Amino acid sequence: MKKAFITIMFLCVAGLAMAQEENETKFKMAIGDTVVWKPFDNCGMMNYNRSGGKIIEFKLIGKFFDQVQIIATKEGKCSLKATCQENGNEAVASITIFDPNNAPVVAEKPVKPATLPFTSTYTFNPPADNYFITINDMGSGFNETYMKHGDDEAFNDGQGVDRFWNVKTGKNWYYRPDAQGWTDDVDWEFEPFGTSFPILNSFATEVNKDNLSNYYVGNETLTVGGADKPMDIECWKFFVDFEDGTVIQYWVDPANGCTLKRQINADPAKIVTVYDLKYTRLYFGPSFKKGLHDTRR
Asked: HSE-up of 35 (CA within 13 Å, CB side)?
């Protein structure tokens, strides 16, 4: 009888080298639903990696433990990746769980206020170094954090992905809170932040700047977290009607042209909550690791 060797790993891993093939199966489940997923037709050695929110329970079933029973426990999104150790093939179960008792709320599209003459000059000059920026997705409740300190960069998506790399040496790490803390990953298997990233660059890349008076509706103050304490930033507010009928509102920092808040139609906005542009002292990462099993972040 062929024996199956199953290793269960709950790793917070992103940006790894892709396997030979990757197949995705999408499951939309209500809380309490159960499905059975068979990643491969014929594979006897598999690893399973879960990422995202802890919203499911699962167990291995079948004669050779080649199937997974997934039970929906909480509302949210997550994924379960199966890797066949025999050939490197990968299969992914993307899982969305909803609460059937929560009826969807259909929000009305916002009405555009009167526009005002825009007499300032818009320039996009995003931070290039020494920043620690957190962006909150008010719809999902998750935070994305971007950090750059010299050649060191780090990213956390608030859903289990926690990475740290050096753009000069190519050294790359991911974070394992359950065992080894910061753990070596494949060199150069990351994408540097480059000159900017969403949502900071959204107004700069999405909107025609020929006549901003068509979109400018005044100033509005946003409160964001700084290095030591919250600070108020008086933003330019733009209300843009796109040709496809979409309405997007932007709150823009006049000092550098970065978007600090972006809202599509009446959907929950994405908003910068931590905006430290003078991040000169690194206080976390693999350089602070004291030993193999040091799990401090």
From this structure: 19
Task: Categorise residue 76: left if φ over 0, alpha if ψ from -120 to 50, beta otherwise.
Answer: left
The span from the CA of 56 to the CA of 160, in Å, is: 14
Neighbour-count burial of 203, counting CB atoms closer than 10 A to its CB (0-12 exposed, 13-18 middle, 19+ buried): buried
Buried b (16+ CB within 10 A) or exposed e, 233-262: bebbbbbbeeeeeebbbbbbbeeebbbbbb
- Is the peptide bond between 6 and the residue preceding it cis, with omega within 30 degrees of 0? no
pTM above 0.85, yes or no: no
Residue for token pair 């509102």: 249
| E-state strands within 38-151 | 45-52, 56-61, 67-72, 76-84, 90-98, 131-137, 143-149
What is d(CA 40, CA 22) in angstroms, rounded to the nearest whole number? 11
Q: Which segments of 106-246 are extended strands (E)?
A: 131-137, 143-149, 152-156, 162-166, 172-176, 181-184, 216-225, 230-241
Tokens of 160: 């289990």
pLDDT band at 250 (very low <50, low <70, confident <90, very high): very high
Round to whole Å and give the CA distance between 175 and 285: 9
- Per 3-state DSSP, the chain is made up of helix, strand and coil in percentages (nearest 5) of 5, 45, 55
pLDDT tens for 16-57 read 333 334 588 999 998 989 999 989 888 878 888 888 878 999
CA distance 179 to 203: 41
